[in-house]
Amino acid sequence: MSSSAPATTTGNLLPVVMPAVFVFLWSTGFIGAKLGLPYAEPMTFLALRFGIVVALMLPFALLIRAPWPKSWKEAGHIAIAGLLLHGAYLGAVFASIDLGVEAGVSALIVGVQPILVAVAAGPLLGERVTRRQWAGLFLGMLGVVVVVSNKLSLGIGTPFGMALSVFALFGMTAGTLYQKRFCGGMDLRSGSVIQFAATTLLVGGLAFALETREVVWHADFIIALGWLVFVLSFGAMTLLYILIRRGEAARVSSLFSWCRLARR
Questions:
Q1: Is 10 a residue whose pLDDT tops 50?
Q2: Could you please report the per-residue DSSP string of 16-29?
Q3: Count of alpha carbons within 13 Å of 198, Cβ hemisphere only?
């Protein structure tokens, strides 16, 4: 009996610990952006990150024979969701932080996303919206307005930078709803390859059009890039896949929406 007790305890703790670990890892993306952006422009930084992820994830998906979309239409839906979640969201967040917006303020702005998704899901997906959710959205937006106004009055960040964080909020919200509506059966491994590849083309194109593409290979940049690629894009996403396989995805869905990131 003594040998079975630890196993039982561990089994009971995993559903509690794994979502918390996932959320902690995913939320460090803001720190990684702040650490690495002094050494590379935002679109260049993201193009490197996503390009490395695709270069590593594609052979893995092929090796394990992950199922791929059965039609170009299905693949297109997956790509569009990725462009919204990774391109619009992360691209705008990185650009916002690069323009001087504090990482914590950007995180606060996009932190309204779960409530915004819940409210928008009413008319778009036919889900019931409660008064508490409407109240939560109002209070959340009010808090954002107060914080943003205070930061701008102190000369921290720029109006355009703040607007980019707001754009990231709506981009992530649209991506979440789009993924829920059109990509419910997506395989996480092959689908991630498609989403990261599409986003690499987008941010890579923006980097060539708008940036110098110069990178200073400082230790801080290498650490930030490595963390975002391996810990977030591989580690956290693998953890999410395990949670889905264990049937725990519903327990982390709202938290995952808050700290989403490129799946990463």
A1: no
A2: HHHHHHHHHHHHTH
A3: 20
* Residue 68: CB atoms within 10 Å: 16
How deeply is 21 buried, as exposed, middle or buried, from its count of CB atoms within 10 A (0-12, 13-18, 19+)? middle
Q: Is the dihedral of CA 100, 101, 107, 113 positive or negative?
A: negative
3-state secondary structure of 65: coil
CA–CA distances in Å: residue 162 to residues 26, 40, 103, 134, 167: 22, 20, 11, 23, 9
Q: Round to whole Å and give the CA distance between 68 and 58.
A: 11
pLDDT at 135 over 80: no
Query: Helix, strand, or coil here: 215?
Result: strand
Q: Is the dihedral of CA 219, 221, 224, 225 positive or negative?
A: negative
Please tell me whether residue 49 adopts helix, strand or coil conformation.
helix
- Other C-beta atoms within 10 Å of 87: how many? 25
Which of 183, 189, 221 has its CA nearest to residue 80?
Answer: 183
Residue range 54-86, pLDDT digits in tens: 999 999 999 999 999 999 999 999 999 999 988
Quote the CA–CA distance of 215 and 42 in Å, as a whole number: 11
- Tokens for 193, please give them: 């390859």
Contacts by 133-141 with C-beta closer than 8 Å and gap 24+?
137/112, 140/111, 140/112, 140/115, 140/116, 141/112
259 and 29 Cβ atoms separated by less than 8 Å: yes
Question: CB–CB of 179/92 below 8 Å?
Answer: no
